[in-house]
Amino acid sequence: MAEADNISTFSVDGGQDTVGLPRIVMVTEGSDTSASSPSSSSSSEDNWADLIKSSEIPPEYWHIQKLVKYMKAGNQTATMVALSCLKDHDLTIEVNQRAIQEIGGLELLVNLLETRDLCCILGGLAVLKDISPNIEIRKKITDLGAIPLLVGLLSDPARDVQILAAETIANLGKIRKSRKFCRKFGGIPKLIDLLDVKERYLITPKEDLQLDELQFLDIARAGAKALWSMSSSQRNREAMRKYGIIPLLARMLKTIHLDVAVPAVGLLQMCANETSFQLAIQTEKMVQDLITHLANDDKDLKTYCSLAIYKCASDPITRDMIREAGGLELLVEAAQDTTNRSNKSLMAAVTGALWKCANSDASVKRLDNLGAVMTLVKLLDDENDGVLTNVAGALAECAKYPPNRDKIRSSGGIPMLIHHLNNTYKPLLENVPLVLMECAKEQNCMSEIDDLDGVRLIWSLLKNDSKKVQTNAALALSPCVQNAADSGEMVRSFVGALELTVDLLDSDDHNVLSAVCAAIATIAHDQENLAVISDHGVVAKLSKLVSTTDDHLRANLGVAIAYCCEWAQNRQEFGKRGAITPLVNYMTSRDPNVHRSTALALYHLSFYSINCVTMHAAGVVQFLLETIGSKDAVLQEASAGCLCNIRKLALATEKVKLKQ
Amino acid sequence: MPYRHLKEKTLEFLYRNTHFTKSELEALFVMYRRLVTAGQAAAPATVIGQPVPKVDGIDQNTFRDVMHNTFDLVTEDVILDRVWLTWERGANGGEGALKFEAWARGLSKLLRGSDEERRAHCFAVYDLNADGYITRDEMFTLLKNSLLKQPGDEDPDEGVRDLVELVLKKMDVDKDGKVSVEDYKEAVEQEPLLLEAFGQCLPSKRQAATFLKNLTTKQ
């Protein structure tokens, strides 16, 4: 591998005398080139510069550079000798990696990949694989065009080459550019081919396998590692799916070998970010295998399995499969295991999986049997925000089932939850109000929340700039206001709270609006508070919202309008602002919730005669005649009441006419 | 005298003593005949007027051509000569032209040899004086031309000497200053790259596979 131009500057002081060998004059590239190399991490550059200055460079550094020099100047034989000596050094330490880099070794190694000689390729790959974990070297190698060469080597008939090439790609894949190149140069289908290994090899213990069968396993493992690395890019995940990775991955999951399972599950959970993969986990019956691996003691494997479950459990059928396979037991066990507490990624993954799985009634019951609520409450003192978010989410699901609310209270969960309301981590702030929302429906819990000033803290979350946080906080307010002792006084005591709430009606997010309307409906039960929000212009704002087509918003809006009518001139104002006719239109919706709340609104509005006229003109009677026969008690009453008022007005008009 | 057809007895014998199948052996015989005829035709007359001496096997020139062109074995002359010299010629030994049996058996080692056979072959090639040890001087001879002369070098052989020391350190397991057969065996088992550490003397596996495939598909 001879190059004629490998000498840049001749430095006299380079090279240390190595004992026992003749003095060797080292030709090193001038120090200015290494300092100007395009590296991003300035701190490591500073460290390196200090190291050079302090001349604490170990002799290994010079030895390695000498070997690279021989590779450059030597023929194939010399290259092989130098390569085999190079492999003796520990190439994972930075000094040695730098040694190779600074003498132009990287270009040389990448060139080796282009030769047709198997031994050179193998030697070169072995070195590249060991040095590519270094960030700078990774970038440099990618820039030198290593990726297309490596992708080409994936099709080489020699299996050693395939394995080393795949493992090197796995290391390089930590950079976005490499991932893109790999895809562009057709690397993904080739890597997927590597996963194609006979099921028999996957399930037979290693002692019972032949040497070449073991090699197939190694190939599959290397392929999985490389694909796992590649899967950080969304486009790569799409490409993987298109090229048919799913059945191969499903087969790989059946393995009993830990070293194959870890990259396979790691790859699966990364891909599970895509809904297509989430569905595939269900249809390809991967759940059972995932749960089997979840039971494994290896912490990393547990973490990745939990992450996969977390991502695919949004589908109800998958949740059932997980429950039936015994996933919940394993997850609770992992959460209860105190030795896991320090492993934050594991805890976050496990609690996240519990959260998503708890979304079914049957699951919540099963979790109760396992004492999950107590375990989760104990975890509320964790320092890690990710863990806390997931724990809160899980508790929110569990708390939908009334007996759990008291369990949370008796385990001392409420003070901790309220404490977390002071946190700034937004996902956490989305989940905690949901727990409190459920707990507030229980009297004992509500009084505890109230004592600890929880309602004020929830209310202040309405100021948060995240829409989801605002929504969930507003949702939590409704039961709080409803069930708190002396709720009217309490609400009034929060300075600026009511104004803040009414102002939120200007938001453009429908979820926020729905939640705020629901809150306003409960606030409006208290006369004094209703007066205050009317002063803040709630009627105008509600009227503006009336033209919406969102059923969820319509349902809440109707109720809000209904209860806001009970003050002063609000009814009249609603009518003047043209809220009536659109409201009548709501009755055309198919959603029974919308019907109920609209009927309520119309009923309350109908106590003002002009409103009745408007309603009647808008053709409300035909709708009410239908809903009057509804099985929904509230709807029935409201419709009846509304019709009653309309008829009273009609009768009164008749009487006046008759008198005249 | 070269046979026109491959005797059944010879075929049986070779089938049992090489790694080739019968059809491969037959194809190799055809190739052998072709090479010998071509070699005969190319042999120059030694004395003017005298008939050209009969060539009754593969001679060194033909051998060199085959290694170069068919097996893509481009290597130092030293090595190629050693391969020629150490080629097993059967009971009669000698250093003359290769008859078919010797040819077939040698090729079997080269193209499909077991690890043991390949190791033995390489060691024999490198052991220049056939004393069972590869010494420093022998290594130097073999590696003499492996480094390009650099313009700034005061002593061009210094690099080669250094390289020799490196290899010796790696391969001399029993630390006696030279590489014995056992040393070589152990070193190569540890690091397969070192099999041809002193020069390429085997066709690459890829080349061998291609050759063998073409051999039987041509029929």
TrEMBL record, chain A:
<feature type="repeat" description="ARM">
    <location>
        <begin position="371"/>
        <end position="413"/>
    </location>
</feature>
<dbReference type="InterPro" id="IPR000225">
    <property type="entry name" value="Armadillo"/>
</dbReference>
<dbReference type="InterPro" id="IPR011989">
    <property type="entry name" value="ARM-like"/>
</dbReference>
<feature type="repeat" description="ARM">
    <location>
        <begin position="145"/>
        <end position="172"/>
    </location>
</feature>
<feature type="repeat" description="ARM">
    <location>
        <begin position="496"/>
        <end position="538"/>
    </location>
</feature>
<dbReference type="InterPro" id="IPR016024">
    <property type="entry name" value="ARM-type_fold"/>
</dbReference>
<protein>
    <submittedName>
        <fullName>Armadillo repeat-containing protein gudu</fullName>
    </submittedName>
</protein>
Automatic annotation (TrEMBL), chain B:
<dbReference type="InterPro" id="IPR028846">
    <property type="entry name" value="Recoverin"/>
</dbReference>
<dbReference type="InterPro" id="IPR011992">
    <property type="entry name" value="EF-hand-dom_pair"/>
</dbReference>
<dbReference type="InterPro" id="IPR018247">
    <property type="entry name" value="EF_Hand_1_Ca_BS"/>
</dbReference>
<feature type="domain" description="EF-hand">
    <location>
        <begin position="114"/>
        <end position="149"/>
    </location>
</feature>
<keyword id="KW-0677">Repeat</keyword>
<dbReference type="Pfam" id="PF13499">
    <property type="entry name" value="EF-hand_7"/>
</dbReference>
<feature type="domain" description="EF-hand">
    <location>
        <begin position="159"/>
        <end position="194"/>
    </location>
</feature>
<keyword id="KW-0106">Calcium</keyword>
<dbReference type="GO" id="GO:0005509">
    <property type="term" value="F:calcium ion binding"/>
</dbReference>
<dbReference type="InterPro" id="IPR002048">
    <property type="entry name" value="EF_hand_dom"/>
</dbReference>
<keyword id="KW-0479">Metal-binding</keyword>
<protein>
    <submittedName>
        <fullName>Calaxin isoform X2</fullName>
    </submittedName>
</protein>
